[in-house]
Amino acid sequence: MGNKRLTVREIAKLADVSVATVSRVSRGTGQVSQETRERVLRIIEEYGYRPSQMGRSLAEQRHGMVAIVFPGLAGPYFSELTQGFESQAMEAGTGVHILVTHHRDDADDSVLDMASRVDGIAIHGDTVRTETLRRIAAEVPVVVLAGRPMDGVPAVRADNSTIGELTRHLLVDHGYRRLAFVGSPDGSPDVTDRWEAFQAAHKQARVPAPRNPVRLGLQQSDGVRAAGELLDGRRPPRAVVCANDETALGMLIGALGRGLSVPGDVAITGFDDVPMASLVQPRLTTVRQPIRELGATTARLLISGLGNRGAVMDAVLATEPVFRESCGCPRT
Amino acid sequence: MGNKRLTVREIAKLADVSVATVSRVSRGTGQVSQETRERVLRIIEEYGYRPSQMGRSLAEQRHGMVAIVFPGLAGPYFSELTQGFESQAMEAGTGVHILVTHHRDDADDSVLDMASRVDGIAIHGDTVRTETLRRIAAEVPVVVLAGRPMDGVPAVRADNSTIGELTRHLLVDHGYRRLAFVGSPDGSPDVTDRWEAFQAAHKQARVPAPRNPVRLGLQQSDGVRAAGELLDGRRPPRAVVCANDETALGMLIGALGRGLSVPGDVAITGFDDVPMASLVQPRLTTVRQPIRELGATTARLLISGLGNRGAVMDAVLATEPVFRESCGCPRT
DNA sequence: TTGTACGCGTTATCAC
DNA sequence: GTGATAACGCGTACAA
Q1: pLDDT at B2 over 80
Q2: Any idea where the HTH lacI-type domain is (chains A, B) (predicted)?
Q3: What is A93-157 written as a DSSP string?
């Protein structure tokens, strides 16, 4: 194992042909006689020759590879997003490089390094600073995923305003007062949008909104922690609007674990409509977001945009509220 | 944006020096006069020059990049694993390429393609077929992560036998009969080991083990489904040993959602000890696995082993049972 | 200290 | 149908 790989030249010598012919055979391009082709193919097979990617990309001036940058990858959200992205990349014969920043300090360097290894980069939310985004965009095509377009960098995102409908539903249809919002607006553009839609809905319903959101992460464990913060206080909220389903699920688990009734004592809503949302008891009222399609659209935009610039600059995908029982609606 | 990037030659011309000097400056290697260095540095800065990775790796005969291959990335497990892996890779100045197969048919091709883009590959469980693993190992150094060593390919894994202790605890200490196991042994080596340890513990306690495991995936939603299969039947199990925490959590949610008492009606155990395990009510009895260390060890072995072969062949990391309340133990 | 020239592995353009 | 040979961008002996 670990044998040094053979090069075109060596294969050419072994098959007694020129490197050009080996290349033609291995790429299946150009004209090669039946006999020669078979001979070369046999040698290639025998020695397990595979053209070096670095040699190839140097010659072709492309990597056949795009990258997608995430802040982290816990939860089903990123998994779905990746699958949507990869499905389209694959269709275009392009590889996908996943880069996770984990909110590290040197994340920007990693992303800049990526820029010289791929033909295009999709960057999620605000994983990198604006300044870095600009520098990267100067080197390779970039698409912002789940964030706002900027300086000629196109974006693909979901319509977050629908969480306003959910909020209105809680305030008006159910008549709840004292709502809480769980999520850090400074953490991601998506959460910023959702927090703003939450506030806007309050304004429209002429109900005072809470001054601050419960600033926590987007994982289930954060939802459980939020339950601790909100439900153990002396004036617990009547309903909790969570920035995503994971925190809503954590919140639900925390509430039930305290012996509270959901939605009787506290109503809970989420965002995403992940599989678990319809599997828990009570089922989760949420906003359905086409996560997979979000990834797919991003990949298409990125890959097609590699050549022609100035197409779509801001693709906003539609979302829809899904009313189940965790908000207080009867089971249908 | 999208400006074609400058090459060493162009920078050299602009700074009025040779390409060698530019290279020396940008790499910080060799001897360059203070004055020249500053001049070149200024030009590099001004034009935002960054050496092309493909040119560099072609010249250096290395990529400065290793890959880690996963079957999927839902749940906190892969997130932790990745962070451990990346922390070590980073320390060695190596980039990390994450490849997710999603159990696709053409996954093996993707992995083979990776082989010519990186200096080494860590492959999780059995994401690829044995035959493919062999071919890859013939091209680049490979380490199996959470699987068995094979044909000179080293492995890093956790001690799965501890789930036997947990099973014994349920059978002997608590005296439970009719246990069920949730997880697909054919899905991954880890689950195979755990299923076998589960069976072995039964044998040792002279209690008949169930003939078959509940063959489902490793996500929370699978746990909820397992709850449906097991708890709605006419002879529900007294205790359920789940292959990981995610399914155990799903199981717990499913049980509680049915109005059952845990551990009163049914005891539940997991594997991993993820953060949620100690946050739910009742807290989850499980096996603690050093996930992050698993990733870190793999990276170290892979990167150090790039040069010297024949070091560690099978690193088995210790695990420990964590008894909480979901198995029936009193809260301590 | 600096510059020239070659090699890395591949593809593509010409001649033949 | 096939073979030389020139790119591609960089690092680095070797020469100056």
Answers
A1: no
A2: 6-60
A3: T-EEEEEE-TT-TTHHHHHHHHHTTSSEEEEETTSS-HHHHHHHHHHS-EEEESS--BTTB-EEE
